[in-house]
Amino acid sequence: MRFLLHWFVIRLTCSSLWYVRVIKDHLGDGVIASSAMLTELDLSDNAFGPNGIKGAVNLLSSSACFSLKILTLNNVGLGIGGAKFLSRALLSCHRAAVEAGRKFALEEFTSGRNRLENVGATAMAEVFETLGTLVRVSMTQNGINAEGIAALAKALAKNTNLQVLNLNDNTFTEKGTAAVAEVFPALNQLKVINFGDCLLRSEGAKEFAKAVQLHLPNLEEVDLGFNEINGEAALAVATALANKPSMKKLELNGNNIGETNVELLRQVLDAKGHADILGSLSDDEDEDEEDDEEVQDGEPEEDEEDDSSEGVLAAGVTEDSVHEATTALHQSPGVSLETYWSNPSIDNLLAVPAGERANGIAAKLKECGTTDPTKLCGHFVRVAACCRLSEDQVARAAVLEVIEKAFTEHLNVHFMNCFLEQVGLIKSEDKTFTPTTDTEGPIVAMVLMAKECKLPQQLVDMLKCFLYKKDSFIHKQQQLKQYLEENLGTVK
Fold first, then answer.
1. What is the DSSP letter of 65?
2. CA 385 to chain centre
């Protein structure tokens, strides 16, 4: 016979030994004596603690549990000690089943609000790794931090049929998130992930997005709510999930995305037909510390760009070919940077002395101010307009050199948002805004940046998402579409 056993004990103030005796003598030994074969055991909401589980060791390691599929132990006060007792009992059951020519194939394990902490989580990880049969795991609100999360992740990698993973209200940080993301390649059956209120923070969310982008093709629900995630990281997550055909629900509430990024996030999902998957963002807050972090992170990067980006040319273009092509222009009187700035044509750009172009335009941007991404992107579009397909490689290389020097440090999610507005791929919230009609040059320039690996992957993904959406004007411009297919991949 197979039994489904739910055992609810009235909460009494009794000694720990009383629980041991009741569970062992009246529950455990009775079930064993009846020769029952349990398929589900739920002992939730009983305050028996570690000693109560100690009393259940005989039952959990007996032949009555060889057939156990679902074990639920919510809010029973396990603690670290109880987790150790439970781990030993389940491992003993596994060994006994093997000796009897049977298989202990537990599929669902739930243990919420039990203060397992790292040691308890590590004890349970040994069970998960040994069994390798789990389909659903829920271990919410257990005080587990990165060390325990890493142990669980390593063990769960052995459970290749895992479909639901709920670790809500523990403490991942970036380290724990990276450990979980590392095992995603082994978990391609995963459908539901709940890492809400786990302190992933922005860097952890980016790690999550990178891994999800490449793996987990069957994802349906993701909860990353209340994780101190900023707008850039949230967009990375949305971009990664937008291409998952089975996605039904994305929860990002309670983060620091900000109103502007929320709108862009919706557009990213809408472009892939997932406009309805985003949950409520009623508790979202503005990005408080993002600007400070960008200044701190950006200062050393600016110095690095000074060393690395100067003189970088497009593929197939050598310094000699650029020199030969521009020598004739320089034999005639050159034009000043001011002339180019007021009339940014390719002829005027090439007529500016080569050593003055990139540095001069970078200085011009600083004079104009670089705090407003809309204005900054407007300058980018004016410069990049010279990068049309009709121009030769030398001309495009000169434009690219200027862009790399002057704009690379500003290429972030806010900038890309403004760029997409400027070229008319998304609508601006400003009703008076008019996008540029000369879209070819800016798009070609941005594609060149992506091809030369000068754009962060997140921005490349955003660019592809909007360039390739079904109603994009790209599909009507055959020459530009062909260029994109050759340099970014097939336009779908």
1. G
2. 33
Q: Which two tokens stand for residue 291?
A: 């600007």
The band of 297, judged by pLDDT with boundaries at 50, 70 and 90, is very low
**pLDDT tens-digit readout, 91-132:** 999 999 999 999 999 999 999 999 999 999 999 999 999 999
Residue 134's nearest CA partner among 150, 170, 110 is 110
- If one compares 178 and 378, the residue with the highest pLDDT of the two is 178
Contact 2, 32 (CB under 8 A): no
Task: Indicate the DSSP class of residue 160.
Answer: T
- Dihedral (CA of 219, 220, 221, 222) sign: positive
Whether the per-residue pLDDT at 333 is higher than 60: the answer is no
- Tokens 């900023």 locate to 230
Would you put residue 48 in left (φ > 0), alpha (ψ -120 to 50) or beta?
alpha
Q: Which residues contact 473 (CB under 8 A, 6 or more apart)?
A: 424, 439
**For residue 160, how many other CB atoms are within 10 A of its CB?**
14
Which pLDDT score, from 0 to 100, does residue 177 have? 96
The answer to whether residues 358 and 310 touch, using CB atoms and an 8 Å cutoff, is: yes
Give CA–CA dist 184/181, Å, rounded: 5
Give the position of tokens 């049309």: 388
Residue 150 token pair: 């890493």
Give the chain's mean pLDDT.
Answer: 80
User: pLDDT band at 250, cuts 50/70/90?
Assistant: very high
Q: Is the dihedral of CA 241, 247, 248, 249 positive or negative?
A: negative
CA gap 225, 239 in Å, rounded:
17
Q: Which pLDDT value is given to residue 349? A: 75
CA 199 to chain centre: 14
Q: Side by side, which strands form the sheet with 192-194? A: 2-6, 37-42, 70-72, 108-110, 136-138, 164-166, 192-194, 221-223, 249-251
Residue 200 in contact with residue 229, Cβ under 8 Å?
yes
The average pLDDT across 471-483 equals 76
Find, among 76, 86, 168, the residue nearest to 120 by Cα. Answer: 86
**pLDDT category of residue 312 using cuts at 50, 70 and 90:** very low
- C-alpha 225/C-alpha 335 separation (Å) is 55
* The dihedral formed by the CA atoms of 180, 184, 190 and 195, expressed in degrees to the nearest 10: 30
Distance from C-alpha of 217 to C-alpha of 247, rounded to nearest angstrom:
9
Q: What are phi and psi of 111, to 5 degrees?
A: -150, 85
Distance of alpha carbon 427 from alpha carbon 418, whole angstroms: 10
